[in-house]
Amino acid sequence: MAEPNLGIIIAAASRLSMVLLGVVAFVAALEYAQVVLAPVFLSVVIGLMFGPVADRIERVGIPPWISGIAVVLMFVALIGIAITGFAVPLSDWLEKLPAIWARLQSELTSWRGAIASVAGLQEQLRAAMGQPGGMRVNVEDNSAVESVVFFAPALMAQIVLFLASLYFFIATRVRIRAAVLAWCFGRHLRWRIARIFRDVEAMVSGYLLSITGVNLVLAVAVAGVFYALGIPSPLLWGMLAGVLNYVIYIGPAIMLLILTGVGLATADNPLGIMTPPLAYLALNLMEAQFVTPHVIGRTAALNPFAVFLSLAFWIWLWGPVGGFIAVPSLLVVNAILSNSLPPAVSRARAARVRPASAAF
Q: Among 67, 158, 226, 316, which is disulfide-ready with 57 (CB 3.0 to 4.6 Å)?
């Protein structure tokens, strides 16, 4: 009896090892092909978001290739408007940057004693361990111009790849669905795949359109409150709050740090310094606890821990682009699992997941 059990364990361990090796190879491939795959994945997510818009355009008899061009032009126009809105106030803050830096240095003077104490303790520890005192810093002689010259062509290539992928995805999405369904020989399998396509587009587009509406409301609220409080450049901070809110958890934390710096640069007392971050924190808490669960909870029932893990994984893998596609990718996995598992398992899984949407 021991030998069959040992054989079963070895067989199970070998299968598990193959699965783990496949996952590692898949993640390595995603990392290695980031330059190509990240724009393509982002274009698919944006294409799913604008899918309902393309459907409405095509309902009046307009061919898909024209709807694809219309969606690309619409997206480029929205990005252009956002860049224009950021450009003017950002230029003013860039001019003030030397004065802001001097102000921050003066505010942080009180920390010099603590920093000096830590540095002295570090030198004592090094002396006690027999290590040479002082830190060696190697500075490479790479100018900023060389970095820009190296980075600009790659960035432009990724932008072109993104726009081209977005156009072809919008223009051929119906043919892609039909081609995949044509490969499904069984009626039941074809029904499942069709439901997966339907749920993926509905869930991702519903989530992104809903979160865009929430972020617009948050941007207007932040800009209005900051204007009432007399905080400089309220439109800039409102737009930045709306954009960063697409990356849940991480975006609001970055916004708090930025507004803390704004308070340090523009106020002379503790209350004035803490006014921008506290005002934003109050608005963000209202949005996260009341507005977003009410709007998004009906669109996507996701476990907050799964959302956090997906966010951590994709940001580690692809940076800001990964942070944007983290929740949509989780919605895609959720739609696939919901339509692939047996009905009893799917119902039990839905019953477990649904209460967690309030926390999200």
A: 67
